[in-house]
Amino acid sequence: MEITPLTVIVQIFNFYILYNFVLRPLVFKPLQQAMADREATVKKSLDDAATAAKEAQHLKQQYESRLNEAKQEATGIVTNSQKEGDRIKNELVESGRKEAQRLLDKANTEIRAERERAMSELRSHVANLSVAMAKQLLVDNLDADAQQQIVQKMLKAGASHGA
Q1: CA-CA distances (angstroms) from residue 137 to 24, 38, 41, 123, 147?
Q2: Is 132 exposed, middle or buried (0-12, 13-18, 19+ CB in 10 A)?
Q3: What is the pTM of this model?
Q4: Which 3 state secondary structure label does DSSP give 114?
């Protein structure tokens, strides 16, 4: 078999018919369509991945923002708790100081009252002794030595009554 120009032309014509009417519509177009579909699927997957990455980044930022807010709120709660604790402590200290001052004032008042009562009792006792001495002196109308003995006797009697 020899290659002649007519064989070449016939072969080209056969190839053209085979390509345009058989291969192209039955093989190449479905293959191209499959490749285009695959390309679209890959492109969609890449777009979806990019969208998911953006969404993940957005969610991460929201999470970090909420976490920071929670930390700030926790810090605020701790600060407020410390302030409240300090306020309560100060109130208790002030209340204790006022109570101590009230008890001290009460004790001082009681001491003054007791001292006044003791002084009043002492004055009354001295007055009674003085009256008793004067009465005894008037009744006995004694001389100076006798009067001195009576005063000593009364003082001893007053001392034994005071004890």
Answers
A1: 163, 144, 140, 21, 7
A2: middle
A3: 0.42
A4: helix
Distance from C-alpha of 16 to C-alpha of 144, rounded to nearest angstrom: 176
The answer to whether residues 150 and 140 touch, using CB atoms and an 8 Å cutoff, is yes
Q: How far is CA 101 from CA 98, 107, 110, in A?
A: 5, 10, 14
SS3 letters across 2-31 = CCCHHHHHHHHHHHHHHHHHHHHHHHHHHH
Q: Cβ distance 128 to 153 under 8 Å?
A: no
At 154, the pLDDT band (50, 70, 90 cuts) reads confident
Angle between the 29-140 and 144-162 helix axes, to the nearest 10 degrees? 150
Token pair in block for residue 5: 């120009």
